[in-house]
Amino acid sequence: MFLTAKDIQKLCPTGTDADMVSKPFYITNDAWEDRMAFIEGNRFDITVESIWLPDPDDNGGFLGVDSRQTPKLVQLPKSDKNVWWLTQGFYHILAGEVFNMPHDIFGTVKPRRTTFGFSSFVVGTDIAPGYSGQIHCGLVVMAPKPFPVTRGARFASVRFAKFTSEGTIPYEGIWGGAKLSTNGIERAF
Fold first, then answer.
1. CA–CA distance, 116 with 100 (Å, rounded to integer)
2. Which CATH number fits the domain that encloses residue 74?
3. Is residue 189 part of a domain?
4. Residue 176, domain member (yes or no)
5. Is residue 178 part of a domain?
6. From residue 60, how far is each of 56, 63, 88, 99, 160 by CA, in Å?
7. Contact criterion met (CB below 8 Å) for 110 and 157
8. Range with the lowest mean pLDDT among 18-22, 54-58, 178-182?
9. Which pLDDT belongs to residue 30?
10. Is the pTM of this model over 0.70?
11. Per-residue confidence at 123, pLDDT binned at 50, 70, 90?
């Protein structure tokens, strides 16, 4: 069963770490309250905290059966106080919202229509039951001209679904927090 806007509002009453989704540091309390008051449909919008690129000096990493090493990422510098200019390419977007998923709810990241308007698309994944931390998504930009993106811009949305938790094993992986790459070799599962 997909959660409704009212369900999401009940699970996120304060904007603190105790909520299913907590407020990013760069969003004011008033702006957060406005967002929570107007959740469109049954999707919760997520925002850009920072933008990252693969380190050109890194070895590129590897994906093996028992171990893996993702490419090291470097933060894309802003051209202005809170603005990045994006050209064609692939970007890693760190969302500012912190998720504290209950054991009977998962989320699926979906692009917002706005990104298509910039000849771009978001590549997201599921947010597992029991996951705690920020998420990052891919952004593929195919626009013929550079365009600005500001910190706090809504770039994707999450649709939450509730299910019976009987038999579900909560997330116990190693990608919680704000982790963007492996920082060395780690297990592959």
1. 29
2. 2.70.40.10
3. no
4. no
5. no
6. 8, 10, 20, 29, 33
7. yes
8. 178-182
9. 94
10. yes
11. very high
